[in-house]
Amino acid sequence: MARRPGSYTGGMGMSSMLKEGSKHFSGVEEATLKNIEAAKQLAATVRTSLGPNGMNKMVINHLEKLFVTSDSATILQEIDVQHPAARLLVLASKMQEDEMGDGTNLVVILAGELLIKAEELLHTGVHCSEIIAGYNKAAEVALKTLEEQVVHTLDDVHDATKVASAIRAVISSKQYGIEDFVAPMVARACVSVMPQSPKMFNVDNVRVAKILGGVAGASDIVRGMVLLREPLGTVTHVTDAKIAVYGCPIDATATETKGTVLIKSADELMNYTKSEEAQMDATIKAIADTGVNMIVCGQTIGEIAMHYMNRYGILAIKTPSKFELRRICRTVGANSLVRLEPPAPEDTGSCHQVFTREIGSTKCTILDRGDEIGSKVTTVIVRGSTQNILDDIERTITDGVSVVKSMTADPRFVAGAGACEMAVANALQKFGAQQPGLDQYAIRKFAEAMEVVPRTLAENGGMDATNIIANLYAAQQDGKKTTGVDIETGAVGDMQAKSIFDLLATKVQAFKLAADAASTVLRVDQIIMAKQAGGAKPPPQ
Prior knowledge:
- The longest helix has 23 residues, at 387-409.
- 43% of the residues are buried.
- This protein has helices at residues 14-17, 27-47, 72-78, 84-99, 104-124, 128-148, 160-174, 179-192, 266-271, 274-289, 303-311, 322-332, 387-409, 419-433, 439-450, 452-460, 465-477, 504-523, and strands spanning 23-26, 57-60, 66-69, 150-153, 206-212, 220-222, 224-227, 237-246, 294-297, 315-318, 336-337, 349-359, 362-368, 378-384, 412-415, 483-486, 491-494, 501-503, 526-529.
- Helix 6 crosses helix 14 (419-433) and helix 14 (419-433) packs across helix 17 (465-477).
- The protein has 541 residues and is an alpha+beta fold.
- The radius of gyration is 30 Å and the shape is elongated.
- It has 18 helices and 19 strands.
- Strands 7, 8, 9, 10, 11, 12 and 13 form a 7-stranded mixed beta sheet that branches.
- 47% of the residues lie in helices and 17% in strands.
- A hairpin with a 4-residue loop joins strand 16 and strand 17.
């Protein structure tokens, strides 16, 4: 008699309990160490991208799109990691990106280093539970020590100069060499849309318009919106614009039912469309009579409507994106109308001037609100010689804006360039020496794992990492808590004097996520994989 698929076959062990084709791994050798190995490989991949001297990765995703970047969030998103343990690190990194917008690389390499140190302890016979207990204690001490390392607090988020100084380190880690140009530009863009209550700051109010050609130094900001398309009609410039926004098509309405028209003479043919034209003329004239001299439409604009808009001197722009339509409404202070009718005064928006400008070979429409009115949306126009450079600068600007957002909630900063990590490592070494149990070994290994940041910065900068670490420990013993890796001189230096700061909230979140990810991987003692189902693959989570 044929056996039913999936039925019990007898026998002993886990394999007999599972369906045919299932896989099962258990124990330290098969499960824990294999998971650690996968996490190590992932951490080693992005480790060389850390810091200003980090190397770029060339990633070609499943759609054959090319990415050349050192941004670890983009790298991890595009390489499509399959190993379950490595995906835990990717998820931790993604959470850091969503929450803070920066520090994604730190999460992965710190979690990877914690697992490398745990592997050393496992080989000496220390149990996983002891390692996890030690790591949990060390993480608590690390977070307390971080709070004590605050060396700078931003007192005014409406001061562009102070904001630029605070985000300079974040920008230089992605775009080393042009940070003195990009950081003030991002700061000015953020401050221009900063509300009176900084906690209400919205990152979506800083837009990026990428225009191919030129160099990064030609980038600029516009207090308003930049649309990468030109107006539809002959009117291309309007001063003191009064703007109406329509979400419906500006065209003659079509009937829902089909009908047949019988035309018997030439006169009837001539007069057939005149009533339609007269109605459109009356509608556009009524809109123009309210003072509107610019119309933004989210759907189609008919040729007859376009003709009358040109006649009445109305500038017309069509935008296919409903999200862009909402941003335009937010920029100019208008409401999107769903019927083609003259707008009420409270539904119209205003703008200092709207004009068309050719930037490179791209014709753009710029909605400039001017300094005297203020703006709810500011656009950064990014220039670059290749699409990859434009994408990379956009990611840098996005990270900078995200840090400004985090800064509005907690404006405290710690010394960067590995200084705070070494201070934490030094504190953990002392704390570990006072512990009587087996977890003291895990605490010391956690301290050693903290060295990975300055060590990686030194290695990526071509320095002698061992010598740099020794000098950093010596500086910590002398009480110089703000001493970090100076990549410009190739030695150690005072990061507070050089204004190299990292946001405290970013570090706290990164340390928590890295410790949690490492502990989660270490807690796994069995891997049970069911046989893959046939048919179409499920969508990615």
